[in-house]
Amino acid sequence: MDVLDALRYFGALALVLALVGGAGLAVRRYGLPGIAGGSGRRLTVIETLMLGKNHRLFIVRCDGTEHVLVTAPQGATVLSSTPGKRTDILA
Fold first, then answer.
1. Using CA atoms, how far apart are residues 64 and 84, in angstroms rounded to an integer?
2. pTM recorded for the entire structure
3. Do 48 and 88 fall within a single domain?
4. Averaged over 34-53, what is the pLDDT?
5. In Å, how far from its chain's centre is CA 85?
6. How many other C-beta atoms are found inside a 10 Å radius of the C-beta of residue 4?
7. Do 50 and 81 fall into the same domain?
8. Can you point out the beta strands (E) in the chain?
9. Quick one: average pLDDT of 38-67?
10. List of long-range contacts for 78-84, beta carbons under 8 Å, 24+ apart
11. Least buried of 16, 46, 79, 91, by fewest C-beta within 10 Å?
Protein backbone atom coordinates (compact mmCIF):
# COMPACT_ATOMS: atom_id res chain seq x y z
CA MET A 1 0.00 0.00 0.00
CA ASP A 2 1.53 3.27 -0.99
CA VAL A 3 0.78 6.79 0.25
CA LEU A 4 -1.78 7.53 -2.46
CA ASP A 5 -3.92 4.53 -1.47
CA ALA A 6 -3.77 5.50 2.21
CA LEU A 7 -4.89 9.05 1.37
CA ARG A 8 -7.82 7.67 -0.64
CA TYR A 9 -8.90 5.42 2.25
CA PHE A 10 -8.74 8.23 4.80
CA GLY A 11 -10.47 10.62 2.39
CA ALA A 12 -13.30 8.13 1.87
CA LEU A 13 -13.58 7.62 5.63
CA ALA A 14 -13.75 11.38 6.22
CA LEU A 15 -16.44 11.74 3.53
CA VAL A 16 -18.58 8.94 5.01
CA LEU A 17 -18.26 10.35 8.54
CA ALA A 18 -19.21 13.83 7.29
CA LEU A 19 -22.30 12.42 5.53
CA VAL A 20 -23.38 10.47 8.63
CA GLY A 21 -22.84 13.54 10.83
CA GLY A 22 -24.82 15.74 8.43
CA ALA A 23 -27.68 13.23 8.37
CA GLY A 24 -27.67 13.13 12.18
CA LEU A 25 -27.86 16.92 12.41
CA ALA A 26 -30.70 17.01 9.87
CA VAL A 27 -32.69 14.39 11.82
CA ARG A 28 -32.13 16.28 15.07
CA ARG A 29 -33.20 19.58 13.49
CA TYR A 30 -36.18 18.47 11.40
CA GLY A 31 -37.10 15.11 12.96
CA LEU A 32 -38.40 12.04 11.19
CA PRO A 33 -42.10 11.41 10.54
CA GLY A 34 -43.47 9.29 13.37
CA ILE A 35 -40.46 9.88 15.63
CA ALA A 36 -40.35 12.64 18.22
CA GLY A 37 -37.97 15.46 17.43
CA GLY A 38 -37.75 18.69 15.55
CA SER A 39 -40.15 21.48 16.48
CA GLY A 40 -43.09 19.20 17.33
CA ARG A 41 -42.63 19.55 21.09
CA ARG A 42 -45.87 19.97 23.02
CA LEU A 43 -44.56 20.47 26.56
CA THR A 44 -42.40 23.41 27.68
CA VAL A 45 -41.20 24.34 31.16
CA ILE A 46 -41.63 28.11 31.38
CA GLU A 47 -40.25 28.77 34.86
CA THR A 48 -39.36 26.97 38.09
CA LEU A 49 -39.03 28.19 41.67
CA MET A 50 -37.79 26.38 44.78
CA LEU A 51 -40.30 26.87 47.60
CA GLY A 52 -38.46 24.86 50.20
CA LYS A 53 -36.10 21.95 50.65
CA ASN A 54 -38.52 19.42 49.12
CA HIS A 55 -41.05 21.58 47.27
CA ARG A 56 -40.77 23.15 43.83
CA LEU A 57 -43.19 25.29 41.81
CA PHE A 58 -43.37 24.82 38.01
CA ILE A 59 -45.10 26.79 35.29
CA VAL A 60 -45.48 24.53 32.25
CA ARG A 61 -47.18 25.05 28.89
CA CYS A 62 -48.86 22.17 27.09
CA ASP A 63 -50.87 22.68 23.88
CA GLY A 64 -51.27 26.42 24.54
CA THR A 65 -52.47 26.01 28.14
CA GLU A 66 -50.29 27.04 31.07
CA HIS A 67 -50.39 24.96 34.26
CA VAL A 68 -48.98 25.82 37.69
CA LEU A 69 -47.70 22.69 39.47
CA VAL A 70 -46.24 22.09 42.91
CA THR A 71 -44.07 19.02 43.38
CA ALA A 72 -43.29 17.41 46.70
CA PRO A 73 -42.01 14.01 47.81
CA GLN A 74 -45.64 12.84 48.03
CA GLY A 75 -46.35 13.77 44.37
CA ALA A 76 -47.43 16.68 42.21
CA THR A 77 -50.46 18.97 42.52
CA VAL A 78 -51.98 21.21 39.84
CA LEU A 79 -52.76 24.61 41.35
CA SER A 80 -54.24 26.30 38.28
CA SER A 81 -54.62 26.03 34.53
CA THR A 82 -55.10 29.00 32.23
CA PRO A 83 -55.03 29.40 28.45
CA GLY A 84 -51.54 30.52 27.44
CA LYS A 85 -50.70 33.84 25.85
CA ARG A 86 -49.88 33.85 22.16
CA THR A 87 -46.28 35.01 21.73
CA ASP A 88 -46.14 34.69 17.95
CA ILE A 89 -48.30 37.80 17.31
CA LEU A 90 -46.59 41.17 17.56
CA ALA A 91 -48.62 43.82 19.38
1. 5
2. 0.49
3. yes
4. 77
5. 21
6. 8
7. yes
8. 43-50, 56-62, 65-72, 75-83
9. 86
10. none
11. 91
